[in-house]
Amino acid sequence: MNKDIKILIATHKQHFMPSDEMYLPLHVGKLGKADLGYQGDDSGDNISIKNPNFCELTGLYWAWKNLPNDYLGLIHYRRFFSVKNRAERKNNPLETLYLTNEEANQLLSQYDVIVPSKRNYYIETLYSHYANTLHAEHLDVTREIIAEKCSEYLASFDAVMKQRSGYMFNMFIMSKALVNDYCSWLFPILFELEKRIPTDQYSAFHARFYGRVSELLFNVWLKQYSQSNPLKVKAIPFVYGEKINWLKKGTAFLVAKFFGKKYEKSF
Questions:
Q1: Do 6 and 175 touch, CB atoms closer than 8 A?
Q2: How far apart are CA 129 and CA 164, in angstroms?
Q3: How far is it, in rounded angstroms, from Cα 59 to Cα 256?
Q4: Which residues belong to any copy of the DUF4422 domain (predicted)?
Q5: pLDDT tier at 141, thresholds 50, 70, 90
Q6: Quick one: which of 112, 211, 106, 118 has its CA closest to 163?
Q7: Based on the structure, what is the number of domains in the chain?
Q8: Residue 265: inside a domain, yes or no?
Q9: How confident is the model at residue 51 (pLDDT cuts 50, 70, 90)?
Q10: Count of Cβ atoms closer than 10 Å to residue 4 Cβ
Q11: Which domain covers residue 117, as residue numbers?
């Protein structure tokens, strides 16, 4: 029997969307915006207004509060899960590569959590990479909040900050029960961070840091949860929905590392 899975595709513009009914194109930050023809994150219990700073997390919050499905996933119009091999991912169009309902069901019959292949930083820890490219204060204040409100997570937070790789991009598929556990922990931390570090001191790009901090916090939650409730986690590849300029991306990474120049845009 097929599992009841709904995978959100967070987007702010019209884009290719799979025809598979497992996918739900979700217009994040929909509140007050022109209709794209997709479900918006501005109905029911929602934080759509926070999208300029929370990014795709406004979509996650909406799904957590409003969708009844047994399994929830989160991806982005720029990145889709795929189980195709490297040659297929390189040579075939996106329309033939994205994870199908059948493939998702097979994976979830064996594993508890589906995540993207780890992003390796090699010469950086997760903390130093964030500090060099963005602002260390975001993580330092997040650590203070965790120490105050859920100190049992502090060791996991510190361990994750020292890692040189992690599951990034706010991408996952897991049961609604696990989503509930994650979101019940995540959002109170971010709402407190919102109080302590206002965004008006930053450019629009740097003001999106609550969403970026959450990428690291997902790793913290996963590590902490697995200590008392071991999870079967499966990392699978992903494909890009838009062309990536790897030369610019790599150059910006090295310039941030060795010359202290912060990122000023996404790559």
A1: no
A2: 9
A3: 30
A4: 6-224
A5: very high
A6: 118
A7: 1
A8: no
A9: very high
A10: 12
A11: 5-259
Residue 164 carries which DSSP code?
S
Q: DSSP assignment, residue 68?
A: -
Sole residue written with tokens 């150059």: 251
**Would you call 95 helix, strand, or coil by DSSP?**
helix
Q: Tell me whether residue 267 is in a domain.
A: no
Q: In the block, which residue shows the tokens 């097929």?
A: 2
CB 235 within 8 A of CB 115: yes
**Cβ distance 241 to 78 under 8 Å?**
yes
Q: How confident is the model at residue 94 (pLDDT cuts 50, 70, 90)?
A: confident
How far lies 52's CA from each of 69, 186, 219, 222, 265, in Å?
A: 27, 18, 23, 26, 14
- Chain-centre distance of CA 64, in angstroms? 14
- Between 52 and 90, whose confidence is greater? 52
Q: Enter the pTM of the model.
A: 0.92
Among 165, 15, 7, CA closest to 78:
15
- For 146-157, b/e burial (b = at least 16 CB within 10 A) is beeeeeebeebb
Which backbone phi and psi does 24 adopt, to 5 degrees? Answer: -125, 100
- Measure the CA–CA gap between 189 and 184, rounded to whole angstroms: 9
CB 101 within 8 A of CB 82: no
Q: Give me the pLDDT at residue 259, please.
A: 61
Type of residue found at 3: K
